[in-house]
Amino acid sequence: MSTFMFSEGVAVVPAVTLPGVVIGVDIGTTSTKAVAYDTDGRQLGSHLVGYPLNNPQPGYAEQDPQLILEAVLKSISIVVAELVQPVAGLSFGSAMHSLIGLDSDGNPLTPSVTWADSRSTRQAERLRAVPSGLALHRRTGTPMHPMSPLPKLLWFAEQEPKLFERVAHWVGIKEWVLLRLCGTLVTDHSIASATGLLDIHKLEWDREALTIAGITPEQLPQLVATTAVLPNLTPQAAAQTGLPERTPVVVGAGDGPLANLGLGAVHPGMVACSIGTSGAMRVMVERPGVDPLGGVFCYALTEHRWAVGGAINNGGIVLKWAGAALAPDLGEHSEEDLVALAARAPVGSGGLIMLPYLHSERAPHWSALPRGAYVGLTHAHRREHLVRAALEGVCQQLALVLSSVRAAGNEVREVRAGGGFARSGLWRQMLADALGLPVSFPAAHEGSSFGAALLGMEALGLIPSIDVAADLVRIEETVRPDPAAAATYAALLPLFAELYEALTPTFASIRRMAPGLPTGPEPQA
């Protein structure tokens, strides 16, 4: 018998008695950040707590749910202690695609298996290969890729059958945190739309997907809207956060759609682009849908707002690799020097193309097979060409994702971008040139946490709707493409796209050979 409840505790809290401060909590892959905002979008306090991403075996990327819960509690409590204003509520966002198996008392039987975990590659490839795979993608909005909980569930069923049978509930990290904070097991439509298990057109669990996974609807959390409100914290959570028990908690959404909201990209035709460790390109639409070739995902923000786009595995991490592999003499934290080195090479890197698939890849091909490659290398190329080609490869991959967004029938009028790369003038210009569009860079906002706070404000009646995001986000700079550079990248993009198809047999051969090849020492960071 479960000791927690499902959605009986979900309610809408009257807003008339509430102050106007909401704490947006963003549960990320490597850290949780809590940020307090007022209804004018002003940041009133923030705190970040990090935690490790564990790789106990090749392909594994998992975390301790208890450590993440502690990070959530600590980040909230420190922000609450800094505030002089009362808190209207908490609102949550989190990284998507995580999977945790719970026993009947809500205790984890597995680590939190993250989006970066690729152990279910073979299961994902099987799903992609069958005729119903694309239909399932179109119906659930989630590509058949090892990031997704659906192939992860298949992996557990096949590789850990005894453990699989013991699991009473399968959840993501945000659902488990909310269970501990509020005693209620629910999942929002946004996180659910990234599981591969939800029919996004009906907003109910997909029967075929559940049959494939070997689970029942009763093993999943209760589905609720992203604006659903849990009206109370548990006494223990209240004591640990410093908040009253009656503090409302907005269930919230996934970090991708919330990042669009945080950048103010909430209207059709406005694309949000982010490059942190990884990267993504998303546009908001009013009805769910996937392009005919299955090149994009479709995840919910609210009932009438959906994020269509694609994520890439290789963003800023490519620059970090380039520093370690190509310019170790520049030392650690050498991003500025690396970018300066890349600026010495011409646009197009003298005909050198890099496929930046250092950590496999996601959009638009959604395959865990590819590896990184330099093509076109000659005796005339120097390390500045190699570094620049790596940065250009990231931008070209995002240009492919943008093409898939358009192929899904979406108009693209404006691009707003954020993330760590935005600190670099060269990368800003390179992105605008590669996309062939002006790119606007908002003044500092905390992306997903700001989006979570805005969604919470709407849920609590503190703002009329999340449409105000477009007005609250101040644009710091708009970078326009250089015509000559944009023409060069446009000419190179078909070659960049062709290389993936041309090298796929080679990628497959390398994967078959890899287990038998000698391994050396770990590279020095």
Automatic annotation (TrEMBL):
The keyword Kinase applies. Keywords: Kinase, Transferase. InterPro entries: ATPase_NBD, Carb_kinase_FGGY, Carb_kinase_FGGY_CS, FGGY_C, FGGY_Carb_Kinase, FGGY_N. It comes from the Bacteria. Residues 272-458 form the Carbohydrate kinase FGGY C-terminal domain. Transmembrane segments: none annotated. Pfam families: FGGY_C, FGGY_N. Residues 22-262 form the Carbohydrate kinase FGGY N-terminal domain. The keyword Kinase applies. SUPFAM superfamilies: Actin-like ATPase domain (SSF53067). Belongs to the FGGY kinase family. This is Gluconokinase.
